[in-house]
Amino acid sequence: MAPPMSLLRLTTAGSVDDGKSTLVGRLLQDTQSILVDQLAAVDRATRARGGVQLDLALLTDGLRAEREQGITIDVAYRYFATPTRKFVLADCPGHVQYTRNTVTGASTAELAVVLVDARNGLVEQTRRHLAVMAFLRVPHVMLAVNKMDLVDFDEPTFRGIESEFAAVAGSLGVPDVVTVPVSALHGDNIATRSARTPWYRGPTLLEHLEAVPAGREAVAEPMRFPVQLVLRPRTTEHPDYRGLAGQIASGVLAVGDDVIALPSGGSSTVTGIDTPDGPVLRATAGQSVTVLLTDEIDVGRGEVLARLEQQPRVVTELAADLCWLADRPLRPGARVLIKHGTRTVRAIVTALTGRLDLHTLHHTEPPASLELNEIGGALIRLAEPLAVDSYATDRHTGGFLVIDIADGNTLAAGLVGSRDAE
Amino acid sequence: MTAILTRIQRAQRGYPGTGDPAECGTSVDHLAALESEAVHIIREAVAEFDRPVLLFSGGKDSAVLLHLALRALQPAPLPFPLLHVDTGHNFPEVIAFRDRLVADLGLRLHVAAVQDWIDDGRLTERPDGTRNPLQTVPLLDTINEHRFDAVFGGARRDEDRARAKERIVSLRDAFGGWDPRRQRPELWSLYNGRHTAGEHVRVFPLSNWTELDIWHYIARRDVPVPDIYYAHQREVFARDGMWLTAGEWGGPRNGERIVTKSVRYRTVGDASCTGAVESTAVTIDEVLTEVATSRITERGATRADDRLSEAAMEDRKRDGYF
User: Fold this and answer.
1) DSSP H helices in A91-204
2) Tens digits of per-residue pLDDT, A175-208?
3) How many Å lie between the alpha carbon of A233 and the closest alpha carbon of chain B?
């Protein structure tokens, strides 16, 4: 039996009562991903809470506090598959700690499903959801216009929402938007084409999930190889082996490539690419490999290999957008750690340059502080240099964490700005 | 199994391969993507922590995890030991598998035996005789004793609702406890494992794998697993809708009748509360077909302790469980 062909990571975003839990439950159910004992457990839990209709939210709300309070607290990861594709779904709650969770889910997503209620159309939350997806450069966004059964599957209603969404998406620079009329409750256009939308010619939700290009879109980008660790077995069989272990962040690496290690600056040539199944001549973004170089240059964890002709910027000052995830606000002068790729450096946030307006993706005037769930521009001075790309050109080498020096907690998601911003 | 071990050893010795390089690495299908993700996570933990350890029960998930760790670091030898928290309620086949694997690969193994903790009074046997929940204290004591700071586990998010919400790199406080409300957001593939003295992290490289992925991977890479994962004739008795192995741990009791059935195990845990499923799957392809068409989850089918309450796993994890 052949396993599914590809892996797609996706995330969902919807306001409260848009039917997101029902949609996720429907996707799981229609792909035969909910098993009878899980369904029985949900049924027991529903009835224990006095419910009548099966509450599919209880399938994903796993924590005691979530069940007791009837809310979703944290991102839950769900898995389903079709014969051609496996899906990893980051299911993000719509209300509590909204931005923190959505940013987390969107950071790894290749596709986002944004949900609206057909009766309400686009609301304030929808614009925020879409802006966050645009901000984090999720490559594909689809809009599910849910509860179409409650508007009698009315085409003009759907078309109105579709064109408004397309306009908003266009203004935010989101490419490739697909809009689908669905009823998650009844299953219309989720896994099977609905007879009640004869006017709709596009794909079902699941068809689109199966058709979207999967895997790292980064193959066309400049090659980046953050070195995780140096493998030196020093065994009798491999006395002189010295391999650089890492996962190719983007682009294509090939034997014979002339590469430079940054920020240190030593250059060398790739003599071999090892995998546990033997050597290969080339490897692509997403693959974990071990790289052998001609010269004994001093390369260790924290260095990035790049092709000589396509180097990242080496900087000691960063202009970046920060999505602030901590309760304690960020003020200029804060001392933090920056974790970027395989390198962690000390840093000072020297200035806040603006707060991001999620309506327009434009920055407002410099704020005095950045509060929980706010996004803003910042200037950051680094104690040691980092080799970075702007997030706009490379999601995998343009993102970083801001970490609390004292307790080690993650304070912010950081996105390296473009060169123009500096 | 010896043949399979030899293949692994040959792969390790011969590495890097001697033949002509392949044009490109493993095609990037979903299993290759999951493998690369797991290898990346394992390498991150090895690079960032001083004293890692890998929890190894001899079950299929820990067997896959060990296989991935060997692949992630080869041709270098595994730089950290294995830890088995031994309930004493074992399947002999699994212990034999564990010992053969450790000896053949030259690995270091710590065993924390629940029985030792009972014998010296640090733990008390439960009225129901089940020892799965008793593993927490020996686990935490051993982590403290050896000052392990990164503990690899084979837990998967598809196993349980609480696990579905746990981070890949998950901070444990000085008491080993997990606080689901204070989890760090986990962004991109950047794992924040910073911790203070006394704290440690659990690292779950198989977070995004499902039971079916595990079996596809076992098939693709010839990962050795204990024979009891395949169908065999066994003396069992029925309790709570499961087939339990007859043995010295409380079974069969009054009225429970021993029968011989063709069964296999979907999970391997405390033998007193881990059930077998009726099966005729003796080959990997037959197991794959069975797993793909099963309508019951592996824990639902085989674990009595997870039926205790809706939040049984969360409660155990808060106390420091795997």
Assistant:
1) 98-108, 124-135, 155-172
2) 778 999 999 989 999 999 999 999 999 999 999 9
3) 4
A237 lies within 8 A of chain B by CB? yes
Domain for residue A1, yes or no? no
pLDDT 10s digits, B239-271: 877 888 887 776 788 788 889 999 999 888 887
- Which residue's structure tokens are 């219309």? A188
**Do B29 and A4 lie within an 8 Å CB cutoff?**
yes
Q: Print the domain residue range for A84.
A: 6-215
Q: pLDDT tens digits, residue range A69-121?
A: 666 667 888 899 998 999 999 988 766 556 788 888 999 999 999 999 999 99
- Cross-chain Cβ contact A278/B19 below 8 Å: yes
Cα B202 from chain centroid? 13
Which residue, of A254, A276, A307, is where some domain finishes? A307
Q: Which two three-digit tokens encode residue B274? A: 């881990």
Find out whether A332 and A322 touch, Cβ atoms under 8 Å. no
Per domain, the residue ranges of chain B are 2-8+29-212+313-318, 227-308
pTM of the model: 0.92
| A6:B23 CB<8 A | no
Q: Does A25 touch chain B (CB under 8 A)?
A: no
Q: Is A131 within a domain?
A: yes
Give the residue on A whose Cα is nearest the Cα of B8. A276
Name the CATH topology of B2-8+29-212+313-318: Rossmann fold (3.40.50)
Nearest to A301 among B47, B165, B296 (CB): B47
Interface test with A, best of B37, B178, B190 (most A CBs within 10 A): B190
Asked whether residue A45 is assigned to any structural domain, the reply reads yes
Does A287 map to a domain? Answer: yes
Matching residue, tokens 């060169």: A419
- Alpha carbons B265 and A159: distance in angstroms, whole number: 53
What is the ipTM metric for this complex? Answer: 0.94
